[in-house]
């Protein structure tokens, strides 16, 4: 046990999430070469990607695979993202057992005092029935209450966490007082088929075959992941949208 408590680090509040594509081996050519082994035998990626522009035949094959849900050719690629988000977002992430995750551990390191607080434009009023929610803007009074209460609870919780650490309590015990809006970070690795499954459930778009009603905070992460993926596999992404955003 220490003789005196150490000063509490300054507490930071954020209303955003961060997503960085840190490693990838993913292109539309990966889909083409994997699919054509069925009819042409062994190919190289150079064969599948010949020419500066994709041919109509290439586009047609990717669209056929997407439309008729021949999904395995979309698995021959890999993307690793680094994500910073509040812990409650990661608990929703873990529901998708189609990716590999490594998250920072509160058992092994002291957690930083960074907490999520909803931005003023975050919708607060939930109406509708389970599976078909709609969210509406909160009143100014509700917005102020959410901001004030979230900040106060975060400060109180982190001060309690710090007091336990200063008293020599193990990190894995002290962390139990921390709220779900504290930020964590992780690496997540998945292929395009898995990512499409994730996006189909965690983004809300008009005209999709199967409407989704994601929590806004995980949708913020999904939107950033989708932007990175679009640049890597534009034909696959376009076909995903054209076919109702259904994972093959």
Please tag this protein with its features:
248 residues, alpha+beta, Gyrase A, domain 2, 4-stranded antiparallel beta sheet, two-stranded parallel ribbon, 9 helices, 17% strand, thymidylate synthase activity, thymidylate synthase (FAD) activity
| Radius of gyration (Å) | 22 Å
Report the CATH C-level class: Alpha Beta
What is the domain total for the residues? 1
Q: Name the overall outline.
A: globular
Write the H/E string, N to C: EEHHHEHEEEEHHEHHH
Instruction: Enumerate the spans where pLDDT stays under 50 for 5 or more consecutive residues.
Output: none
Largest sheet: 4 strands, antiparallel
Can you list the strand order of the major beta sheet?
Answer: 2-3-8-4
Number of DSSP helical runs: 9
Helix content: 40-55%
SS-based structural class? Answer: alpha+beta
Strand-residue proportion: 15-25%
The overall pLDDT, averaged over residues, is 91
Number of DSSP strand runs = 8
Oligomer: single chain
